Amino acid sequence: MRGPDKAADHAPARPPAQSILQRKFALTGCAGALMRQRFVLDHALAYTLAAEQPDHGDAIERVLDRAFGPGRFAKSSQRVREVAAFEPALSRVALDQDGRPVGVCRIWRVSAGAPAFFLGPLAVDPACQAVGLGLTMTRAAIVACREIGGGAVLAVGAERFFRPFGFDVVPFGRLAMPGPYDAERLLWLELQPSALDALAGQIGAP
Q1: Is the bond into 12 cis (omega within 30 degrees of 0)?
Q2: Which residues contact 68 (CB under 8 A, 6 or more apart)?
Q3: Which is nearest to 90 in space by CA: 71, 110, 74?
Q4: Is 1 helix (H, G, I), strand (E, B) or coil?
Q5: Strands 152-156 and 186-190
Q6: Tens digit of each residue's pLDDT, the chain (206 residues)
Q7: Is residue 94 within a helix (H) or strand (E), and if so which, with residue range?
Q8: Which of 165, 114, 120, 111 is nearest to 143 (CA)?
């Protein structure tokens, strides 16, 4: 079902007047590109990734509140997570130099005619955005799903963000989510050959 809810299940970078990169390097051409890439790499290396642990919970809730606000509980993807099985070992958390969670990419087990993984929420604390943490966590979580033999990953969000990982928009009518949602933001990724062929219907409990 199509609906008015266009909210992504990943938190986009807040659009300040200038991003960190723009303030640091107002350069153009190859020199500017190289300096921006080096800045992102250096700052990304200041964080470490880890599987989610129980003691990360409170800090992650604060990150989600700052990234999404209270509206996150009204999303259709939240209805999916309410019946899904959380997989902390496959989820990835970004930790700062003091070991505090500043980003999260969660993975859940669901079913839609066949088993699949459901990715989200994906969020980075607004103070730590613009250094590639969202991309890094997403990539690591997908690798973890593939390594244990998962067949497919589902996500809700902007195709332009997820496309580099291999996600495509789910063909209209093939899958459904509880409540209103934007079908153009429902995405899937095949991890094993022909795994998408078996997926159809409502996304629900595994």
Answers
A1: no
A2: 11, 121, 123
A3: 110
A4: coil
A5: antiparallel
A6: 444 444 456 665 444 433 333 333 333 443 443 334 443 445 555 899 999 999 999 999 999 999 998 878 888 999 999 999 999 999 999 999 999 999 999 999 999 999 999 999 999 999 999 899 999 999 999 999 999 999 999 999 999 999 999 999 999 999 999 989 999 999 999 999 999 999 999 999 99
A7: strand 92-95
A8: 165
Tokens representing 61 are 């809730």
Secondary-structure breakdown of the chain: helix, strand, coil percentages, each rounded to the nearest 5: 40, 25, 35
- Global confidence as pTM: 0.80
- What tokens appear for 158 in the block? 């902007």
Distances (CA, A) of 121 to 29, 31, 76, 149: 35, 36, 12, 22
Angle in degrees, CA 68, 201, 8, rounded to 5: 15
Helix or strand run (H / E) with residue 24: helix 20-24
Contact present, 118 and 79 (Cβ < 8 Å):
no
* CA separation for the pair 109, 146 (Å, rounded): 13
Please, are residues 88 and 123 in contact by the beta-carbon 8 Å criterion?
A: no
